[in-house]
Amino acid sequence: MFYQSWDINLKVSIDSRTIQPGEYFIPVQGTHFNGRDFVSEVISKGGHVLDVDLETYAKSYRKKLTCKVIAIVGSAGKTTVKDMIAGVLAQRFTVVKTEENNNNEFGVPLTVLAADADTDFLLVEMGMRKKNDLKYLTQIVQPDCIIFTGVGKTHIEFFKSQYHLALAKIEVFRSQLKWQLGKRVCFLSGASDYYDLVVSKADSVGYHLVTYTGDDKVSENINLCYQLGSYYDISSACIERGISTSSRSVHRMNHIQKNQILLIDDTYNSNPSGVLYAFQYLARYEGRKIAVLGDMLELGSHSLKEHKAVGQLAVDYGIDMLFLYGSEMAAVSVMDIPVYHFNDKELLVSYLKDEIKIGDVVLLKGSRSLEMEDVVHQLDHVIS
After folding, report:
1. Within 90-161, where are the H helices?
2. Dihedral angle at the C-alpha atoms of 150, 151, 154, 159, nearest 10 degrees?
3. Do 191 and 86 reside in the same domain of the chain?
4. What domain range is 13 assigned to?
5. Are residues 96 and 222 in the same domain?
6. How many domains does the structure of the chain reveal?
7. Torsion of CA 283, 267, 302, 168, to 10 degrees
8. CA 362 to CA 352: how far, in whole Å?
9. Residues 364 and 303 occupy one common structural domain
10. Is 6 exposed, middle or buried (0-12, 13-18, 19+ CB in 10 A)?
11. Rounded to the nearest 5°, which phi and psi values hold at 35?
12. Residues 6+ apart with CB under 8 A from 214
């Protein structure tokens, strides 16, 4: 049966495979699929079909929400920040957040639709690859609060320069709509490139600005949690508990500790900012520090320079060994520490099996298409 009305407590999906009896299916159309092809499957499962445009429906739904809406944007660290902030807010409030990193034109409206009348805070991670992406998503989300993790070089391949990328990032700052009530606030990383540009844009549309800083990305994120938690009247004890108990998304700094060997699975994606943050994180551990890195993609003309910089960055943060995978990582060359390069993943795993010893801390990271989690799974089996 087809429906066109909406209710703030409906359970909505665009994936016919996950539909349960009584849930609602919106048949969206993508480049390689048409949701209407799966309507009969949905009905056979006892689901209902909501015959609406996903974007339009989510915009209308957002206007009815009474919860605080927080958008999380930036070149790197969005998912980690989202999970930490969710942990803090959940100490006092009912929180709905983006699942994993479903931060695109489908994931964002679905996250909005996941909130209901009982939701106190809605945390929406918003990604971008090109100009106007954030403008589009912001028109759906209309955030009361923005966490801006910084301008880096992610997806710079699709822009003339980092400055043009920064201009696309600040599209998240839009004028307040008449139906939005209360003061809007932006928590901005003090380490962001083009900091003044971000501040100017946020101020021009009426955002109250709070800058958070730290000695490294780990301490910066912790400070953000305390500042945002305090802003929303959460006690220091609850903030500390929220940070320590916050969950991590898959392949985002996940720890695998077995037989006195620690694997840190950060393989979901990679970029220059992300590698820097990962090295800062790894540097906090005692023991021999090994970094296993796959190519950083979508850097365009910046690729050679950014990959070359990885070697010295590893030295600066006390990394003891580098194992590198992919054609772009061949640019890394440094004399101060052992560096091994591979174009064959199985050969990489074979060398790692022989090298890793008790007491080692091994960080694994790479761009999504390299599927570096394959290495994690094989090493996990070996050290068990």
Report:
1. 107-114, 133-141
2. 160
3. yes
4. 2-52
5. yes
6. 3
7. -100
8. 10
9. yes
10. middle
11. -60, -25
12. 220, 221, 222, 223
Q: What count of residues does the chain have?
A: 384
C-alpha angle 36-37-43 in degrees, rounded to nearest 5: 75
Rounded to two decimals, the pTM is 0.86
Q: What is the pLDDT tens value at each position of the chain, 384 positions in all?
A: 444 555 667 789 999 999 999 999 999 988 888 999 999 999 999 999 998 999 999 999 999 999 999 999 999 899 999 999 999 999 999 999 999 879 999 999 999 999 999 999 999 999 998 999 999 999 999 999 999 999 988 888 889 899 999 999 999 999 888 788 788 999 999 999 999 999 999 999 999 999 999 998 889 999 999 999 999 999 999 999 999 988 888 888 899 999 999 999 999 999 999 999 999 999 999 999 999 999 999 999 999 999 999 999 999 999 999 999 999 999 998 989 999 999 999 999 999 999 999 999 999 999 999 999 999 999 998 887
Which CATH number belongs to the domain containing residue 171 in this structure? 3.40.1190.10
Tokens 């849930």 found at: 23
Are 37 and 88 within one domain? no
CA atoms of 384 and 110, how far apart (whole Å): 38
Last residue of a domain, one of 245, 263, 282: 245
Cα 218 to Cα 223: distance, rounded to the nearest angstrom: 9
Tokens of 369: 């298409």
In DSSP terms, which residues pair with 121 in a beta bridge? 68, 95
